[in-house]
Amino acid sequence: MQKVFPANPLEKPGYRLEFHDEFDGNSMDDGKWIACHLPQWSSSRQSAASARFEDGHLVLSIGADQQPWCPEYDGDIRVSSLQTGVFSGPLGSTRGQHRFNRESVVREVQANRALYTPTYGYFETRLKGVREAGYHVALWMIGYEEVSENSAEICICEIFGKHVTAGTSKVGVGVHPFGDERITDDFREVELPIDISEFHVYAAEWTPTHIDFFVDNQLIRTVHQSPSYPMQFMLGIYERPKETLSQSEGRSSVYPKDFVVDYVRAYQPVNGYR
């Protein structure tokens, strides 16, 4: 099983760096990140991320006493997540990004912000997963959704702790249509000889015709579909308490559960996409 994979150079030949955070400071850059998870369906306070900075890394964590982020619509799921945009309609409306539950309505109106919402590009992160059932970590993208049907997802990497063996780990990549009828669900977990609890590099190149997915600079999958509208980053750790309780063997009661991220980078090709 492959252990740590080194960081890539900041410069990428043929591309220009458009957005990045190396997380080498002591505080969140609020010009790049909104430190809560889909707050329009809950509240900024209830969905706030627990974040700290250690050794040049971002650490998103779930603590023992953390409350569910949106119990009315998402049960006991606990989240610590960042995003690069937020959009919602008026109070009580059904208009807003990633309306994951058909019963959900806007409970806290947001000041709409698009901090980084690209259409196409090469996106890369270096991070550690959580090797424990009931947890997963992800860097994914959702439509900014000023137009409600522009709501597909691109999963750059979605890594479940339950899918780790002595010699392999599974990495989920692909697209989900969500509310976009132009996209067909095409998501797959690719089994790789890596240890997701160590640093690895995960990336996707989103073009007008297809999306290529990479792990440690190796192409692992291509999806021949492509949303064609602005999308934002979502970066977080998620806990499903019922799943952790069902996995009594090897379950760790030690908190916090930490998701460590070395960097997030976004590039555009120097000559654009044809």
Helix content: under 10%
Instruction: Label the structural class.
Output: mainly beta
Q: What characteristic shape results from the CA principal axes?
A: globular
**Gross CATH architecture:** Sandwich
The sequence of SSEs as H and E is: EEEHEEEEEEEEEEEEHE
- Report the sheet-strand fraction: 35-45%
Which regions have little confidence, pLDDT < 50, spanning 5+ residues?
none
- The CATH class is identified as Mainly Beta
Structurally, the number of domains stands at: 1
Number of strands: 16
Give Rg in angstroms. Answer: 18 Å
Describe the structure in your own words.
- It contains 2 helices and 16 strands.
- The protein is mostly beta strands and 274 residues long.
- The chain has one domain: Jelly Rolls.
- Strands 1, 2, 3, 7, 12, 13, 14 and 16 form an 8-stranded antiparallel sheet that branches. Strands 4-15-8-9-10-11 form a 6-stranded antiparallel sheet. It has a two-stranded antiparallel sheet with strand order 5-6.
- The protein is globular.
- The termini are far apart.
SSE arrangement:
Layout: E1 15-21, E2 51-54, E3 57-62, H1 71-74, E4 78-83, E5 85-86, E6 113-114, E7 121-127, E8 135-143, E9 153-160, E10 169-176, E11 186-192, E12 200-206, E13 211-215, E14 218-223, E15 231-239, H2 241-246, E16 257-269
Antiparallel strand pairs: 1-16, 2-3, 3-16, 4-15, 5-6, 7-12, 7-16, 8-9, 8-15, 9-10, 10-11, 12-13, 13-14
